[in-house]
Amino acid sequence: MTQNPETQPPSGLPASVDVVVVGAGIVGLAHAALAADRGLSVLVIDRDHRAVGASIRNFGHCCITAQTGDLYELATAGRKHWLDFSARAGYWSTESGAVVVARTATELRVLQELGERREPGQIVLLSAAQTLARLGRTGTNPAPIEDAPTAGISTEGAPAEDTAPDQSAGVVGGAWLRDDLRVDPRTTVAQLAAWLDQQQDAAVRWNTSALGFAAGTTRTARVQTSRGDVEADHVFVCVGHDVDLLFPEVAAEHRIDRCSLQMAAAEAPGGLELAPAVLTATSMLRYGAFVELPSAPALQAQVQAEDPELLDIGANVMFTQRPDGTLLLGDSHAYQKTADPFLAESTTDLLLDRIQGVLGVENLTVTERWQGIYASSDVGPLLVADIRQGVTAVSVTAGIGMTVSFGLAERNINALP
Ligand SMILES: Cc1cc2nc3c(=O)[nH]c(=O)nc-3n(C[C@H](O)[C@H](O)[C@H](O)COP(=O)(O)OP(=O)(O)OC[C@H]3O[C@@H](n4cnc5c(N)ncnc54)[C@H](O)[C@@H]3O)c2cc1C
Hints:
There is one protein chain. The protein has 2 domains: 13-93 and 184-254 and 380-414, FAD/NAD(P)-binding domain (3-Layer(bba) Sandwich); 98-178 and 256-377, 2-Layer Sandwich (D-Amino Acid Oxidase, Chain A, domain 2), CATH 3.30.9.10. By secondary structure, the chain is of the alpha+beta class. α1 (26-37) runs parallel beside α6, α3 packs across α6 (188-197) and α3 packs across α14 (401-414). The strands form 4 sheets. Strands 1, 2, 9, 10, 11, 12, 19 and 20 form an 8-stranded mixed sheet that branches. Strands 13, 15, 16, 17 and 18 form a 5-stranded antiparallel sheet that branches. A 4-stranded mixed sheet has the order 6-7-5-14. The protein has helices spanning 26-37, 54-57, 69-89, 105-117, 128-134, 188-197, 243-246, 248-253, 281-284, 288-291, 296-306, 308-312, 345-359, 401-414, and strands at 16-22, 42-45, 61-62, 93-94, 98-102, 123-126, 173-177, 181-183, 202-205, 210-215, 221-225, 228-237, 256-266, 277-279, 318-321, 327-330, 334-336, 366-377, 382-388, 391-396. The relative contact order is 0.20. The protein binds flavin-adenine dinucleotide (FAD).
């Protein structure tokens, strides 16, 4: 951003811009990028020296297909922006889709039911062999996508009767979710922020905390920061799970908790190359589009009966592969106002065991473990709250902020006068 020194307070922040965004995670950056595209001058501030929040700790999976209702609209609307800014800002992205692995007939039924609700080709049912091939588990080539069954369950590989999950093999089929995207969570927000900072009318300032919000004198609102005040016509406060630290009453009204998740990274076994994100039965228990299907209660009962430990840790057994080959493995869910920082080794071990079962390998080499935290609410998956004139708090209060960030930002920026 080219700054006029005449209008700069000593802090180096501009005295006034059209839009201030607080928080340089994906939700804040999506708002900033789309505001800049609209020709508005934008300042992003983040309290940290670089983004280390939820947006770098996740799977980098834009889980578009498994959303429903308004979230599906937002996820679908955001897809083009993910790809557009990937081309412009240079972050890695892939239209890999996702594979959902089924190990029982009930799981297959859930996948089939979702396929029947969607346009042809969006959800492609896979035979067992096709699913294994997409997991890199056989020497066989996957059948071309066009040849995979798109309606009904393939008789090839489908079990005659329901079977218990088999941790060593037992894959009976699956589905490919065509529209899902992947980005690299470790690099995406840093690249997007750096690119934004190079744009003519945008700036990103780190190590700058928002401390308070007031009425402006030259613009609608004033942001009090640790480096001085900035005025703006509109302020989006996108601080993720820390929304309760700035706006405790709003967070209490929306019943916001912190959801903490255990994650691990592992070396790819045997040069494994995995294009899609990989989801499993517990994923189908969490994402809205699956949860509302007729067979969802049967699946819930089945997992409860056959693998209750996974439900005890709130597991969503899933994994993705970064461009450098590293596998990102997860995850568990625990809900508290203040997240307990201690990671239970038994939780990581359980997740690792089930993922090894899906991959058909033993002894994955874990290279990193970490805790991720996102905002969670039983009131609804999105918090968009007017704090005062010209100041809006925006927080995705479910574990889908990568998926819906750009769609939500498009909606909010379009609503500006
Ligand atoms: C382990 C894990 C896995 C996940 N997997 C997925 C997935 O596969 N797909 C998906 O769609 N979603 C996923 N999510 C959810 C997703 O990561 C989050 O919803 C999303 O990243 C939230 O983005 P955010 O910008 O709101 O928050 P954050 O990325 O946490 O960013 C908030 C920023 O605000 C800054 N900040 C806070 N307070 C202030 C202040 N007062 N002043 C200035 N700056 C401040 C912080 O420093 C931080 O950089 C996952 C989350 C986790 C933790």
